[in-house]
Design goal:
The complex is a heterotrimer.
Chain A: H1 7-34, H2 39-42, H3 57-66, H4 68-99, H5 105-115, H6 124-133, H7 140-164, H8 168-176, H9 181-210, H10 214-217, H11 226-231, H12 241-261, H13 263-270
Chain B: E1 4-13, E2 16-26, E3 31-35, H1 42-50, E4 57-62, E5 65-66, E6 77-80, H2 92-103, H3 107-120, H4 136-148, E7 154-158, H5 166-183, E8 186-191, H6 194-200, E9 203-208, E10 211-216, H7 218-223, H8 228-233, E11 240-243, H9 245-248, E12 254-257, E13 262-265, E14 271-280, E15 284-290, E16 298-303, E17 313-318, E18 324-326, E19 332-333
Parallel strand pairs in B: 3-8, 3-9, 6-7, 7-8
Antiparallel strand pairs in B: 1-2, 1-4, 4-5, 9-10, 11-12, 12-18, 13-17, 14-15, 14-17, 15-16, 18-19
Chain C: H1 4-36, E1 38-41, E2 46-50, H2 54-61, H3 65-95, H4 101-113, H5 116-127, H6 134-141, H7 149-152, H8 154-179, H9 183-191, H10 196-223, H11 228-233, H12 243-253, H13 257-287
Antiparallel strand pairs in C: 1-2
The chains are: A mainly alpha, B alpha+beta, C mainly alpha.
Chain lengths: 276, 334, 288
């Protein structure tokens, strides 16, 4: 067991850790604060930290000008849809890899992960062409499919590592107890796998939400999600700091909150089971 | 009823044959123990009987009906796993009820059987807990409870005590033996611990590399092991196996003398050596004797009050009527 | 471990995922290969016939090619080095007994959730702007001349932005790994007379090697394809053009699909070299 730590040590640790934590968090904090300033205060010299006139005006302007609601809706549908699609396809695959492994299971897993390394630009034009042919360009369903495909290897991997932790003997016990494959999945596997599936879901929503290559290149006006909404601020308009901050805050807030609530499960999933 | 018969059963994983053709009959109501060193195929054999593995060839019949292709659940067998394999998200009650629920037994009957099993296994107070809140011994009992309520033709135990500490193991051993006396159901029990095999079994099946070395009652195996492997495996401390001129005196390649069949003396005897370590257990003393010219070390079991210590010279005389003789192939010479 | 029946069921269940990924890989790849041997300018005449290896030669001999490879390597290598080193240090710090550890974790993980376009924009405008950026204020406060980050120090700036995004990931994985280190091992080393630095070198660091491998693998996958950070900040100017970005410009900005496709094939080859190398390591770790 670890030894008792002196109070002094603990105070030093706490101070150092909080200082570093706040430093890392600072850009986000600064963005959120700036979103409540007026444009003049946002570029004040020296910068004002908290002592400014808090205003919601920027949010109003941003909402009015760029139809935030539609971008948000697109983001939710695309991230959510691609995740659900992915889970539906990945659960059976991961299940069979974890519980009925063959000599090739490991190779298949590694191959899947290697498709993730395929540089997106290398296939951008073909996908672009296919999208035009299939009428998928600037549609939510098209993006959903692409994001599902690029994240599928990660979903399969995560689920695989979670399923792998469910002892095979328990499934055998269920089989001995007379459960059919269907009953085994319903009564034993699913309840035991729910935490794993949930964190996979979360991570995938975050990845899909933040994906910025395909979402920028395959959408125009109709299906553009929040990544595009924000990218539109890269023009000189970006110099209106307060409005930029308000838009940024609105783009990241949903996922930031979701992520904070589920950070524990996320970390375990992110490691692909290679770190316990 | 639970008479289990294996005929020419083989099992291969890819090109590796882990069980060459094997024949074995376990009679109804018998307590059979498969014992052998790890990797000997004893667990595979049990899983073949359970139906969790397909046999490569041969047939398995249960009560005279062929069951080779029957899925595990339909064989009427219950299994207790090494890790207990309790469903972590279900309460003890639900765990025990699960096989009955799968079999579609009505709720009243389910509850009756759960209460009875819980009472028999001292689990009544824990029925609403989750497995995570139970001790190792309690989990073990839940696993047994889950097996009992199915009223199976036979129970299969896969090293069920190996995760328990020594004291609990002795207690559970006794409980399982009592359960067998009470239910009179066939039990097949896999272990690598020869003490469990000796104390519990009606019939011991000693396996090595997928091959049955010997089948018999505990005392048969103890008194007349059919080869040097069984001789060395059954009995604790291990039998002393001696080769060379001393064995030749008995017209054998190897002779075996159990530690408890050696008389020790400070003055005279057939063999002599120096005490390396003397282990006092209170009831007995184990002397490990070196420099005998017979084998690296000879183990002697003698009474608890001898006072030999490291370096002392001792003389040992084997009891002539219980010297086991083996030929060049390691087989017993009668 | 399983019976014949469950094995065929397993194959069936794996099929959709495998077939989809195979299609996702093969179809565009074949098309890219096809285009790479053509002169293909969608806005200026379309398909102008086969040109053999012309595109490949032109792509490599273009003055932008080697700098883009170097830029790619600098960004990936720089970010990996920074996140791993700082990640280890931070993980050790966060593993110390303290008050409010949960809160600090939440603060540290936050950048991971920020979408790349947002972080690039915020850094570019609100921090790195030479007139109004916070860093400019800081520089002025100390009497220094503000740096024009994204033009004078463009590569380090991008490395810094991307490192900020990925540091949380590295830290949290390494923290998880550190927490699984048996404290008795460290105590044994202490009894054996190893001072703190040696304990770190001989016990903690080897224990972390597996986690570090995972961090490097996963980050490399994502870093090789960073796009938004460059798209939003410099648009590929000031020596920040990665191989991916160069191809992107060839295909979309100059609408030379043939040339871009040849570049794409190079990028795929490069990625595969990295992939094989990394897969070896991960494959080994999978067995352990």
């Amino acid at each position: 067991m670890a030894r008792a730590v002196t109070q002094q040590r603990k105070i030093i640790n706490t101070t150092a850790a909080w200082a570093v934590g706040l430093l890392i968090f600072f850009p986000i904090l600064w963005t959120i604060l700036t979103s409540f300033k007026t444009e003049a205060q946002a570029i004040a010299d020296p910068p004002v930290f908290l002592a400014f006139d808090w205003t919601l005006e920027n949010y109003g302007v941003v909402m009015e000008r760029s139809n935030y609601g539609r971008f948000l809706w697109n983001s939710i549908i695309i991230a959510g849809g691609s995740t659900i699609l992915g889970i539906i396809i990945a659960v059976p695959a991961a299940w069979s890899m974890a519980f009925v492994p063959s000599k090739r299971t490991k190779d298949i897993l590694l191959w899947m992960l290697s498709t993730k390394m395929l540089p997106a630009v290398g296939v951008l034009y073909p996908i672009y062409l296919l999208f035009i042919k299939l009428g998928l360009l600037d549609t939510k369903i098209g993006l959903m499919i692409v994001l599902m495909l690029i994240n599928l290897p990660i979903i399969v991997w995560m689920l695989y590592t979670y399923f792998k932790e469910i002892p095979g003997e328990i499934l055998e016990a269920a089989r001995m107890d007379g459960a059919t494959l269907r009953e085994e999945v319903i009564h034993i596997l699913t309840p035991m796998a729910i935490p794993g599936i949930a964190s996979t879901l979360l991570l995938n929503v975050i990845l899909a939400w933040n994906e910025a290559f395909w979402t920028l290149n395959l959408t125009a006006a109709k299906a553009a999600p929040l990544t595009a909404f924000i990218a539109s601020y890269s023009s000189p308009e970006g110099l209106f700091y307060a409005k930029l901050s308000a838009a940024s805050t609105m783009a990241i807030a949903p996922i930031l909150i979701l992520g904070w609530f589920s950070q524990k499960q996320l970390v375990s999933g992110l490691t692909f089971g290679a770190v316990k | 009823m639970g008479r289990i018969q294996l005929e020419n059963v083989t099992k291969s994983f890819g090109n590796v044959e882990v069980i060459p053709p094997l024949n074995l009959t376990i009679e109804d109501g018998e307590f059979a123990v498969f014992v052998g060193p790890s990797g000997c195929g004893k667990s595979t054999l049990l899983r073949l009987i359970a139906g969790l593995e397909d046999v490569t060839s041969g047939t398995i019949s249960i009560d005279g009906t062929e069951a080779t292709q029957v899925p595990p659940a339909k064989r009427g067998l219950a299994m207790v796993f090494q890790s207990y394999a309790l469903y972590p998200h279900m309460s003890v009650r639900k765990n025990i009820a699960f096989p009955m629920k799968m079999a579609g037994i009505d709720e009243a009957e389910q509850n009756k059987r759960i209460e009875a099993a819980a009472k028999a296994l001292n689990l009544t107070d824990y029925l609403d807990r989750k497995p995570g809140q139970l001790s190792g011994g309690q989990r073990q009992r839940v696993a047994i409870g889950r097996a009992i309520v199915r009223e199976p033709a036979a129970f299969l135990f896969d090293e069920p005590l190996s995760n328990l500490d020594a004291a609990l193991r002795v207690g559970m051993r006794l409980e399982i033996s009592e359960l067998h006396e009470r239910l009179e159901t066939t039990m097949i029990y896999v272990t690598h611990d020869q003490v469990e095999a000796m104390t519990m079994a009606d019939k011991i099946v000693v396996l090595r590399a997928g091959v049955i070395e010997q089948v018999g009652s505990p005392l048969e195996l103890y008194n007349s092991p059919c080869n040097t492997f069984v001789a060395g495996f059954i009995g604790s401390p291990k039998m002393n196996l001696i080769e060379g001129p001393e064995a030749a005196k008995y017209n054998a390649q190897t002779i075996g003398v159990r530690p408890e069949h050696l008389e020790v003396s400070a003055e005279s005897g057939d063999w002599s050596g120096r005490v390396s370590v003397s282990e006092h257990l209170g009831s007995d003393t184990f002397l490990h004797v070196h420099d005998t010219g017979l084998a690296d070390s000879i183990t002697v079991r003698t009474d608890g009050n001898v006072s030999f210590k490291h370096g002392d010279r001792v003389f040992m005389t084997p009891r002539a009527d219980v010297i086991h003789r083996f030929d060049a192939q390691g087989l017993r010479i009668e | 471990m399983a019976t014949q029946h469950s094995r065929s069921a397993a194959r069936l269940m794996m099929a959709p995922a495998v077939i989809l990924l195979l299609g996702w890989m093969l179809v565009p790849l074949t098309m890219t290969l096809f285009f790479s041997f053509k002169k293909y300018l969608p806005l200026r005449g379309g398909d102008l016939g086969w040109v053999g290896f012309d595109n490949y030669v032109r792509f490599v001999t273009s003055s932008a090619f080697w700098p883009s490879v170097v830029t790619t390597l600098i960004i990936v290598g720089g970010v990996l080095a920074i996140t791993v080193v700082l990640g280890v240090l931070l993980a050790i710090l966060l593993n110390q007994p303290m008050w409010g550890q949960g809160m600090v974790r939440i603060l540290v993980i936050a950048p991971f959730f920020v979408m790349p376009t947002v972080s690039a924009l915020v850094w570019k405008n609100m921090f790195m702007d030479p007139n109004y950026g916070l860093l400019a204020h800081l520089w002025k406060f100390f009497g220094a001349t503000p740096v024009e980050w994204l033009s004078q120090a463009s590569l380090p700036s991008i490395v810094m932005i991307v490192s900020w995004q990925w540091l949380p990931f590295a830290t949290l994985i390494l923290l998880t790994a550190i927490q699984s280190l048996d404290s008795e091992q460290l105590e044994a080393a202490e009894m054996d007379g190893a001072p703190a630095l040696k304990r770190f070198g001989y016990i903690t660091l080897p224990h972390l090697s597996r986690a570090i491998t995972v961090v490097i693998l996963i980050q490399t996958i994502f870093l090789l394809s960073i796009f938004a950070e460059i798209f939003v900040t410099t648009g590929g100017a000031f020596g920040t053009k990665t191989l991916s970005y160069l191809i992107f410009q060839r295909v979309l900005e100059s609408q030379n699909v043939g040339l871009g496709s040849a570049g794409g094939v190079y990028a795929i080859i490069l990625a595969n070299i990295v992939a094989i190398f990394l897969m070896r390591i991960v494959g080994k770790n999978l067995d352990a």
